[in-house]
Amino acid sequence: MGGFAGFVVLRLRAHRLLVAAAAVSILVTTCVLATLAGFASGVADAGARRVLATTDAAATPLLLTRHAGYADRAGSDRDARRLAATALPGLPLEIRSLALSDGLALPGGTTANPDVTSLATLDRGKLELLQGSWPTDAVPGGPVPIAVPEAAVSRLLLGLPAGTRSVTGGRLTLTDQISKAPLPVLISGVYRAANPADPYWQLDALGGQGFQRAAGGGHGGAGYGPMLTTDAAFAGGAVTQSQLSWQAVPGTDRLRAADLGALAAADRAATARINQQGTYQAVSNLPPVLDQLRQSILVARSTLLVVVLQLVLLTAMTLLLAARLLTEEREAENALLQARGAAPQRIVRLAATEALLLALPAAVLAPLLAQPLIRLLGAFGPLSSAGVRLDGPLPAAGWWTALVTALGCAAVVVVPALARARRARESRRPTRGARAALPSVLRGGADFALVALAVAAYVQLRHYAGAPQGPTGSLGVDPVLVAAPALALAAGTVLTLRLLPVVARIGERLATRGRSLPGALAAWQLSRRAHRSAGPVLALALAAAIGTLSIGLNVSWGRSQRDQAAFDTGGDIRVAALHVPAFGQGGLLAALPGVAAAVPVNRQQLSLAGGRIGELLALDTRAEAGRLPLRADLADRSAERLLGPLADPPAPAAQRGVPLPGRPTTLDVDVRLSVSGLGPGQTLTPQQVGVTVEVTDRFGVTAGLDTRSVPPDDATHHLVFDLRAAAGTGTPAYPLTVTRIDLARPVALAPRAADRQPHPQLTAAFTLAGDGVTATAPAGLGWSNRTQDSAAKDHDSTYQPGGPVTAQPSGPAALTARMKLGTFFDQTAGGSFGQAAPDVESSFTPAGPASLPPLAAVADQRFLDSNHARVGSVLTLNEAGGGLVVRITGVVRQLPGTGAAAEQGLNGQTLNTGAGFGATDPNDDGGAVLVDLPSYVQRLDRPDTAIANASAPPVEWWLAATPNGRARADAALAADGDVAVFYDRAAVAASAAHDPIGSGPQSALLAGMVLAVVLAAVGFAANASGTVRARAGEFAVLRALGMSRRRMARATAAELTLPIVLGVGVGLLLGEAITRLVVPLLVLTPQATTPVPGVLVEIPVLPVAGLLTAVAAVPLLCAVLAGFRGGDPSRRPRTPEES
After folding, report:
1. Which DSSP symbol is given to 177?
2. Which string of DSSP letters, residue by residue, matches 1062-1122?
3. By three-state DSSP, how is residue 293 classified?
4. Is the CB of residue 321 less than 8 Å from the CB of residue 539?
5. What are the helix (H) ranges across 224-343?
6. Residue 573 lies in a domain
7. Could you tell me which InterPro entries the record lists for this protein (predicted)?
8. Of 926, 948, 976, which residue is a domain's last?
9. pLDDT score at 739
10. Residues 68 and 128 in one domain
11. Per-residue pLDDT averaged across 662-688, rounded?
């Protein structure tokens, strides 16, 4: 090989170690950046598909509904499929359909408000047959065979002959709610949904549960079904088809992240257009899911770019170090070439050719190595746990990145040669010899400019932390968020260059005071050529800082997921929705295996000044004090001390009501009503008195039992209330207490004003018992009364309100009340008022304190700021029931259990991020306040409060699991059909940690940390080799003067070790500082919002110590071995440039 190419190869061979270091650096850099580019694209596509495959089943289908008869079925089906293809373009669709009949009234109920059902053509593959057989086609003129849901069996037995034990084979006559035509049916079997969570059951208004309680929980009007029938029943006209429903489930196997925005827009537009046309009704929850997915991908890409820029910074530093050493080695050679007539341009051309030859292997090999590396990243670590598989070919972004990176690395290698060529032209002489203590870039103050830029980026990032936005303000990758960590690293490491000369001079002075020749020699070399150590110091500092930042970001991100899960769930398990009345929830949940305690939670929305919206969180603070997930840094005291003052002192037994003995299933009430003092011609209206009894369980949850009508005939009437019915399919939480008795009082009618007489008096006595065992009123029990008299305000002076009411226990009667009844004068005996009928109700509750102090509350800082309040302030809150007076006793930075994420799942709405108690717009968020639920309830129904007649039933429950009992509790909740939505804290945290999108950056962080160690080792090895070659002449002279090889090795090791110690130490300090500053701003939720609670930065000692050991290991080994190379006097006369 001759000519120009041969000369280039000879130049490369003359400096094999430095050339190899540069080639390895270029190859590693190109491979890593190509891998990360392909990884970012691949993980976004694969993660998006994984998220849609594992997301809430109700999130992805498109639902279409149309009212149409059987004759229109075929045409409607074609139109529905066409509309679905328009709404979800480019995706394979699975279409499911359901035909539904008119509403049909069930027999055996009330005629005014009957229970209803409907017949449907359900997919039998989604059902499980429990009894009997599947329905067959109806015989002409015979009943229609049907299969009924398991939840409807007990109700259907009411319509069958008495004594019937099984509905299978039973015959019923249903009534069409529209045509009123009878429909005879034959029950052939009983079924249940094989999987109620299957998205197929969105087609069913009852969601596969088979039953829906009537609105308000009253009798009648409940829904059952649907009843399964064959399609022939609709085709033959035996059953009238009323409605058709379709469900379009998109396949996402070919979906790409780039298509998410267009798909969401198409779905929104098509859904709006379909609903506007009116023939079909369309519902789709997919666009919000896709929007959130796009935000998650942008957050992940931002974090990935943070890693990429840090690695670019380190690789550029490593390449510049190798290129500078190579250029320095060739100074004399280039000077000789110039002396022989070579122009500076030719020398630059030689350097450029060498750089391209070094980059060529990287350009060829990097794309080939990138895909196996991507598979490796996906096969281990967070991505593997998230179930993401990256098995496809290398995306185009990976190929382009490899080519551009290889060319960029070649350009970086040429930069030192260009700089020296320019200086050579200016000076026309070699530049070997003494150098300035500081590089020119530092002498010009560029390092301070870089620091100023980093500070400005940090301030900007801190001020606008939150959703990632592009340069135009739209949703996109925020360049400030991406660049700020890299700028901070660059600024911090460059500043260390100013320390290096100072440290070298101090070391030289210390060494000259001693008698160690190796130490003095090393110190002298460092102080004379401090610039040679700048590159290794920067490389090692960057590697240590990047590794520390990666560890801190990874660990803090994981900690944040656990903290968010704790804040959002409140307890070990959060039950957000149940198909059970509130009165039956506490006993049901507390009895589950693995549950140690159940805490009821109530929420209210608060209207604050300036249009802001706050949230009131009420829970049993005595039960929750030791379990509230309040992080220590969020308050100035522990949760126990913070919640201790919130609860009122326990009320004495006499103020709590009448306890029912044992665990009764029925409440027996003996009522005796009598009227005295009724004057001549006076009558009562209405003729009977309405009696309502309220029972409270041990959690403070109340149940108003059915109102019963009792005549005031001075006879004892025995009323039996079914407590199990009040609990629905749940269980009352014993012990139970009677806490309220309401009387709907009659009024007296007097025909003439001249006949005015004293008011008649009503006497009411109530004896209470549970399962026949008489309940004894506690000693000292008193009853307070509040009477609401609509007649007093709705009628004129012809009405005279009743007199005072007295109420107290008397003998076996827990309550004996006497009251004067109101009287209408100038009225006919028939009671023709001409206005609204009178409504007079007296409520009797256990007498408590005459007045109560303001309710103690703990507020978050945002709430105090919104109300211009502080600890000790007394505020009146405008909540749903009226005004509530609270006194702030404590403050926290952020309050657990509040915010949109903590409301998810309430009322079964699993797709919503909130349920409307707090603000959905962060700009309207007025903060939250926490109060004790029993103390709050005590203030709701009092005559002296502005929020009388309000109630606070639990909207959710926080469960505490026994040790090792969480899995059993989860299994019991999942198997209980009455539990609609629940969240396990550990499962929520694990799900967030294994998020298919968020796991990508975590894998990249770990890979970046490994690469930082490798690049630091390569860079330092190149520097050590260059140092040994540069010292070869000096070592030969020292050897010739009699200095031993061991002492020279010690001197070289000392010279190379100081930059290692300085670089690793500075990198550790810089990495910790930057981690604590920027990690709280880099960690975002999948919704691209700041996490709640804020990120608590963790930098674990052991992993960081392992990292620093790995960073320093190879450099220390090089430092030890470097001194044993060179120093042979016989090799001194012939150096490469002299050959």
Report:
1. T
2. HHHHHHHHHHHHHHHHHHHHH---TTSS--SSPP-----HHHHHHHHHHHHHHHHHHHHHH
3. helix
4. yes
5. 231-235, 260-277, 286-329, 331-339
6. no
7. ABC3_permease_C (IPR003838), Macrolide_Exporter_MacB (IPR050250)
8. 976
9. 92
10. no
11. 86
